[in-house]
Design a protein that fits this description.
Layout lengths: L1 E2 L2 E4 L3 E11 L2 E12 L9 H7 L7 E13 L5 E11 L9 E3 L13 E3 L1 E10 L14 E15 L10 E15 L3 E10 L11 E9 L2
Antiparallel strand pairs: 1-2, 3-4, 4-5, 5-6, 6-9, 7-8, 9-10, 10-11, 11-12, 12-13
């Protein structure tokens, strides 16, 4: 795989373990990933090529990622979703292997990949309402809406500091979202987050919205 405009080729071996553990109160999903790159496999899979892409990176590297998602049923049909992800790396990784901070699935309220880190953690706590229908639940176009409120946090770090950048970045936001389904035809997700920490390179905090829509027919 070639990254950006640099002639860099990724050759690595991943090992992934996934488990889904249900219980009386909800379920827990666990994923453990271990990745090893031996380096020097192809013409552009060497230290010089990697160093041109990101400072202090090597073609030989290893990293591990641990992810846990806990969904707990609450009274009145509500639910709590807790997510935690941590990554540990032997050196500065190619951008494609780093943790991205910002956007849906990470720290909402920031642009996607506002900050990157070869190692770090991303935490999220969300409370969701029971699902309800706006227009009735009969026919192929029955709809379902769910509301949520969240707090997201990320701590991202490079094993070796890249010149002219901060070695560690922190991100924190709070906000709410709407998930709306119409049969098998529309899947709409809206997330609005307010930054509690200014993004890297800025002194100002902001509120950002992100929308993901999937239309099928």
């Amino acid at each position: 795989m070639r990254l950006l405009d640099s002639a860099v080729e990724i050759f690595q071996f991943p090992l992934i373990y996934t488990a889904n553990i249900p219980d009386d109160a909800g379920e827990t999903e666990v994923q453990v990933t271990a990745v090893w790159s031996p380096g020097n496999i192809t013409a552009h899979n060497n230290d010089n090529a990697f160093a041109d892409l990101i400072a202090f990176s090597d073609a030989i590297y290893a990293y591990s990622r641990f992810s846990v998602t806990r969904t707990t049923r609450l009274p009145y049909g509500m639910s709590a979703v807790t997510r935690a992800m941590a990554q540990f790396a032997s050196t500065n990784l190619p951008y494609s292997e780093q943790i991205g901070g910002g956007g849906i699935g990470s720290v909402r309220g920031y642009d996607t990949n506002t900050a990157l880190g070869s190692q770090g953690m991303v935490l999220s706590q969300e409370i969701r309402s029971p699902a309800f229908s706006l227009f009735g639940d009969e026919g192929d176009f029955r709809d379902q809406m769910q509301l949520g409120a969240f707090i997201d946090y990320a701590w991202l770090r490079q094993p070796h500091r890249i010149p002219d950048t901060e070695r560690t970045e922190k991100m924190l936001s709070v906000g709410g979202g709407v998930h709306y389904l119409v049969g098998r035809y529309l899947d709409l997700q809206l997330e609005v987050g307010t930054q509690l920490k200014a993004p890297p390179g800025s002194d100002d905090r902001d509120t950002r919205a992100a929308i993901v829509a999937t239309v099928s027919y």
